[in-house]
Amino acid sequence: MQPIIKGLTASLFCTLLSLSVAQTASADDERNSTESILPIKVIAKGLHSLQYGKRLEAVRNSAKLQELASLFPYGNNASDEVDFSKYVVIGAFMGSKATGGYNIDVVKAVQKETNNRKYIEVSVKSKVPGPSCIVTMAFTQPAKLVLIPADPRTDIVFKENYQVYHCR
After folding, report:
1. CA dihedral defined by 152, 154, 160, 165, rounded to 10 degrees?
2. Whether 42 and 22 share a structural domain
3. In 31, 82, 128, 141, which residue has its Cα 20 to 30 A from 76's Cα atom?
């Protein structure tokens, strides 16, 4: 019986030690990370775009910007000159929806640095009408282009969430 108790004690000690090491490593990662919220400037938005599929894209050159800007048939400010050495354009397209009531928004851009890795986390929220909402019976393609400050070498990571809103 004595060897079993010693074995269990040693096993319990090793488990607790590994949990302690994992928590210390996680705390070190948090201490080695920095975050800063970046400003967002909307340069084009609309409920009717020519992009019929869902698309999230980081644009880093003028040719690609003109391609995405051309998807807004009712005008936009995206034709303005963008200094791509200082900024990146984020394109958020929800795709084609059978009714109105849908919307897409770039709600936050956060520059993060963790363990010497710099990246920007872009939060995109898609709003969806609930079943009790009265909506326009027309096809829509919600879309938005925004400008955020970013180094051209910085990775962009998209974080998406969906919100169903309810009507009375």
Report:
1. -60
2. no
3. 128
CA–CA distance, 110 with 120 (Å, rounded to integer):
5
Give the model confidence (pLDDT) of 21-73 as tens digits: 444 444 455 556 789 999 999 999 999 999 999 999 999 999 999 999 999 98
154 C-beta neighbours (distance < 10 Å), count: 17
Phi and psi at residue 149, to the nearest 5°: -70, 135
Residue with tokens 């986390």: 121
Q: Are residues 41 and 105 in the same domain?
A: yes
Structure tokens that stand for 38 in this block: 């970046």
Assigned token pair, 4: 């079993």
**Number of domains the chain is built from:** 2
Q: Are residues 41 and 8 in the same domain?
A: no
Tokens 């050159």 found at: 61
d(CA 76, CA 105): 16
63 is in which domain, residue-wise? Answer: 33-165
95-141 tens-digit pLDDT: 999 999 999 999 999 999 988 889 999 999 999 999 999 999 999 99
CA distance 161 to 167: 20
3-state secondary structure of 45: strand
CB contact at 8 A, 105 and 145: no
